[in-house]
Design goal:
The complex is a heterodimer of chains A (about 1000) and B (about 375).
Chain A: H1 2-9, H2 13-22, E1 23-32, E2 37-43, E3 48-53, E4 57-61, E5 67-71, E6 78-84, E7 89-94, E8 98-107, E9 110-120, E10 145-150, E11 157-162, E12 166-171, E13 176-182, E14 187-192, E15 198-203, E16 208-212, E17 219-220, E18 225-227, E19 238-244, E20 252-257, H3 261-264, E21 268-274, E22 277-283, E23 287-293, E24 307-312, E25 316-320, E26 328-329, E27 342-348, H4 353-366, E28 381-382, E29 392-397, E30 401-406, E31 413-419, E32 424-425, E33 445-447, E34 462-468, E35 473-478, E36 482-489, E37 493-495, E38 498-503, E39 520-521, E40 526-528, E41 531-541, E42 548-552, E43 557-561, E44 565-570, E45 575-581, H5 588-592, H6 595-618, H7 628-641, H8 646-649, E46 654-657, E47 670-678, E48 687-694, E49 698-705, E50 718-726, E51 733-739, E52 767-772, E53 775-780, E54 786-791, H9 792-796, E55 800-809, E56 817-825, E57 829-834, E58 840-845, H10 852-857, E59 859-860, E60 865-871, E61 874-881, E62 890-891, H11 938-945, H12 968-989
Parallel strand pairs in A: 13-17, 22-33, 38-41
Antiparallel strand pairs in A: 1-61, 2-3, 3-4, 4-5, 6-7, 7-8, 8-9, 10-11, 11-12, 12-13, 14-15, 15-16, 16-18, 19-20, 20-21, 21-22, 23-24, 24-25, 25-26, 27-29, 28-62, 29-30, 30-31, 32-39, 34-35, 35-36, 36-41, 37-40, 42-43, 43-44, 44-45, 47-48, 48-49, 49-50, 51-52, 52-53, 53-54, 55-56, 56-57, 57-58, ...
Helix pairs in contact in A: 6-7
Chain B: E1 5-7, E2 16-23, E3 26-33, H1 40-50, E4 58-63, E5 69-72, H2 75-84, E6 88-95, H3 112-120, E7 143-146, E8 156-161, E9 171-182, E10 185-197, H4 202-206, E11 214-218, E12 221-222, H5 228-237, E13 241-247, E14 296-299, E15 304-306, H6 313-331, H7 339-363
Parallel strand pairs in B: 2-6
Antiparallel strand pairs in B: 1-3, 2-3, 4-5, 4-6, 7-8, 8-13, 9-10, 10-11, 11-12, 11-13, 14-15
InterPro entries (chain B): PAR6_homolog, PB1-like, PB1_dom, PB1_Par6, PDZ, PDZ_sf
Organism (chain B): Vombatus ursinus (Common wombat)
GO biological process, one term (chain B): protein-containing complex assembly
Amino acid sequence: MMKFRFRRQGNDPQREKIKQDLFAFNKTVEHGFPNQPSSLAYDPKLRIMAIGTKSGAVKIYGAPGVEFTGLHKETATVTQMHFLPGQGQLLTLLDDNTLHLWGIFQKDGYSHLEETHSFLLPGRPGFDSANVPDDYRCGKALGPVESLQEHPQDPSKILIGYSRGLVVIWDQSTRHIDHLFLGNQQLESLAWERSGSILVSSHSDGSYMIWSVSDDSARTLQPTTSTVPYGPFPCKAINKILWRTCESGSHFIIFSGGMPRASYGDRHCVTVLQGQTLVTLDFTSRVIDFFTVYNTEPKDEYDNPSALVVLVEEELVVIDLQTPGWPTVPAPYLAPLHSSAITCSYHISNVPLKLWERILSAGKRQSPQLASMNWPINGGKNLAQEPTQRGLLLTGHEDGTVRFWDASGVSLRPLYKLGTANIFQTDCEHADSLNQASEEEWPPFHKVGCFDPYSDDPRLGIQKISLCKYTAKMVVAGTAGQVLVMELSDEKSEHQVSVATMDLLQDREGFTWKGHDQLSPKNGSLAFPPGFQPTMLVQCLPPAAVTAVTLHSEWNLVAFGTSHGFGLFDYHRRNPVLARCTLHPNDSLAMEGPLSRVKSLKKSLRQSFRRIRKSRVSGKKRTNPNSPNSKVQEANAQLAEQACPHDVEMTPVQRRIEPRSADDSLSGVVRCLYFADTFLRDATHHGPTMWAGTNSGSVFAYALEVPSQEKFSERAVEAVLGKEVQLMHRAPVVSIAVLDGRGSPLPEPYEVSRDLAKAPDMQGSHSVLISSEEQFKVFTLPKVSAKTKFKLTAHEGCRVRKVALVTFTSVAFEDYTENCLACLTNLGDIHVFAVPSLRPQVHYDCIRKEDISGIASCVFTKYGQGFYLISPSEFERFSLSARNITEPLCSLDFIRPHDTTCVSNDYKGSPKLSQANGTHVLPASEGNHSFVDGAGTPEHSQAALSPASIDSPNSTDTTLDSTADITVEEVKDFLSSSEEAEKNLRNIAEDDTRSPGILIK
Amino acid sequence: MNRAHRHGAGSGCLGTMEVKSKFGAEFRRFSLERSKPGKFEEFYGLLQHVHKIPNVEVLVGYADIHGDLLPINNDDNYHKAVSTANPLLRIFIQKKEEADYSAFGTDTLTKKKNVLTNVLRPDYHKKKPNIVISMPQDFRPVSSIIDVDILPETHRRVRLYKYGTEKPLGFYIRDGSSVRVTPHGLEKVPGIFISRLVPGGLAQSTGLLAVNDEVLEVNGIEVSGKSLDQVTDMMIANSRNLIITVRPANQRNNVVRNSRTSGSSGQSTDNSLISYSPHIETNFDPKDEESDEEDIIIEDNGMPQQIPKAVPMAGSLESLTQIELSFESAQNGFIPNDVNLQHTSGAKMEHETHASDQKPLEEDGTIITL
């Protein structure tokens, strides 16, 4: 053991330096759509938008590449957000009654988002009311305030809407009520017209009322008009309403909700009304909030809204209001990755320009750009360098689609969508009837957005993808054992897909498949749009999910494996080459089919997802123990976590210590397949080989007889079993790779002939690197004998989940590279090993070990980056390389009057402050912001931070709570206190010029 | 190494020794050079040859000076037999499948009537039902206490040898908490404990592990700070050669320091074989344990081989024929000069028998622990 210790300590300082130049761990950016959004804000001056989530994350977006992420220390729902327009500051209100101020700061030439202050809102005492007609008093109180809106022209005037329908214009300078609107319908929201002469109120009965603000009388008894747009039958409430004037036509009225309760009460709609034109935008998930991008120049007369931005629970939709028909504008970020559940992901680095352009054009033809406008939320500047190479991320989905994403930069952009469902006969052929709203129909639904979580047939789900970037050939394999060979075509085509069936059981007796049926392909020729078009369909029997697939485009071979065996298919000659059953004779479970296990797997996945959600919502300890609400939630979460009663838990959890036996269930699952041109049979002749690894630690190596290109049509490919390796520890084989004479991994097919890689060293002796879930081993070839090994599980107690061969380039020298093995374990750590010595280099914590779906979804890129799902809709991007980092580098220009809220931060490392979903807890040192007030209001910054000051009479707290009762005096009090708060804020910011214009909904 | 198998009785040479070998009802006599007896495998081959039973697995025994029937199955006891034989070395050969193991042991030949008749007349089987103890060559270590000299007396490092799949390791672990002495006084810290022993399992049969023993290390790696699942995975990954350091719940049977001769704890009875008595290994390094698991490589001819010992099949066949030849010449009365060849072939044969022996032995249920 001493020897062991010494070996570890004896680190070479030179080597340490090289390692520093090669490896660095950073979580750089989150791709996709924030999970469980809860609020939305827009700064029309800086043209940036903020989205808050239920886990307390704040994300700010501007032009593509301009992104800021912040995470509240409290895991609480962000209920409201308001920008201080043009100042680069954002005020957030959480459901734990805390108010936070965020600011964007410059550092090293780039902008960052940081939290600067936080306040706790106390409860309020009650007051008597006066000066209000008796009818509008509920006892002593006026009832809850539903809406507060600043006058668009005169900041001293505030519009106050009470829940019971009373609307008041309050003048802050005179401290008097300017005007009373005696509405009597329960109020939902209020909005000003630009000039301040009209206001519109929306109500719980699905009506909206227009009130004219005239100076002649202090009271208005009746609205100018009152409309129930979807009447006459009872309607649901209109939650929010906006009024926008337009120079070229009549004004826009935009509102959410208000649908007829009985017939369409379950629809999530936003209605856009301009003159006689009414469109009901129909979303697939709940509407959170919406805003319009409009002209805010004070001197201009009209709003002229250019775009409507709607945040729904699962996506962000932008409608072009200037183009007739109001088409949607494709978003350059916030990609709805989860529009159907992601079932697998695959990354390709260094995509050749030609393939890139072909995919791009196929994508463009697929969804022609209807909107005339560019992305309207375009504040800030992207300072990141143009990505040096093109990276393509492919996601397979439950509905049988494969989506192509541009993963070269900070914003993950959709490129192209490939559907595979259309070549199969599915139970419910649901036409696109939903999209076509007939002329007669009322309301005129217009389906927008792409979130559609419902799959017609789970068998269509994509399990594995393999793409050759040089020949544009792709293999896509799915849940029902379907393997599709596709080819990229620039023209549309109509052809028949040839079908072949391959029996992987190979006459194994006593087998009855109790799982799903195989998919039945459509007969006859089918029409395919430009893009990837299927040429060949191979169906495995029994139709179990494909667990491994690989493609060799030079040899025209595709290999695929299921839980029963693997097959090799020559897609050029369209005939099977090899089928081998990998079932262990004792494996009774597999014999019966995987139905029960599939169910339990699904169940456990669902449970783990629930656990993740739960831990995200309630995992962190609340800092506010006073809030009874949070206590109840916490208790509920605890209850939910204790699935079993207490007395059951009394028996301790035990683990049986037994080595894995050969007849473990699922031992036949094929985990990896690999093609290599190497020495399998003798040391003098190399040739095509195929390798397969199974769940029980078996490796099969076949020597292939592949005829030369010109004779391909004449002679058939043959496969001869060359070697069979049984790993003694019997752990599942997760990856196989052949290393050349120099110890570098063999290049991909065509990589050498296209001058994109060095030719492999075929002189020195090759070796094969076999990674199991427990160990990495390098064996010599052709005579298989163990050369080096690393027993990960025996040393660290963790198991391998994902591995990849990664090329690391030094920051110091561009031409110094090392090949390494990156490995993600079941504990969420990432280890990097040198190849072929298998010496451990570095290891980092990456994913929480409870985050099973995150670990399962992880994919490494070839140059030291990676992605994993932090929620069903978001990929976290990380980098292991010190050189190859993709992170948001952007700047936002604004003038913050007397910007003295100096926040120095001793934050080092990743430019990203924290992960929005809180799936990874930062070490204390990293998230440590110290507030140092540079320019001299120390007592205020202290007051903001110290909890003692919260109860003091001079506290800066404002009173905001829309759910509790409020009285006029209270309003008065609120206004004075908010004035005080403003004053204080002003002091903090030394902003004497103008009040920060907080608009509270 | 030049040793001679001299055939022919009554050699007058001082260095030679007469051997009388009995197999069934047949006797063979030959002589050996006392000073250079050679290896057991060669002797074994010679016996097979002189009795003309080249492919019969046999057990070899000899009568020592006390008249006990003792086994010859390795170089050590072979040399012992040769050196103690006075004047004649009496060899008894039994077919392995018919072997009566109970014949071996102390006092066997003094009660000549019983035992020898038993050995010599296989039909005499009315003996008391003895516990069948396999031949010592079938013994292999199943557990040992190691590193006694470098560990605190309160700790015990136990090595479990797992062979084949017949006998389970047979224990369970659980989470628990133990009390540690720290600079701040006593502290409760989480720990991993043995929670259950499976009756008849390897762990129970060693007697070295007990329920509620705290697991401190697995193959040299501390388990503190690791989760139950991590420790489980570590143990399973090391299951072929598992070294667990425990703090026994029962501290009364701890190994007393400086008694290097007996490493056995009070709970475990002697491991019964001198050559495999609990041996003390110091400075255990997990990296040295390379022999613990060897993957099986099946070449395309379908013959399983252990990786490091991979012997080409053709070669081993050849060596067998060479043995045949060389013994043929020995029988004809002259000493073969071709010793080198014979030696190498002998070594290869050792491997072959070793390899072919291993399978049935591993699957033999009579694995002795005590």
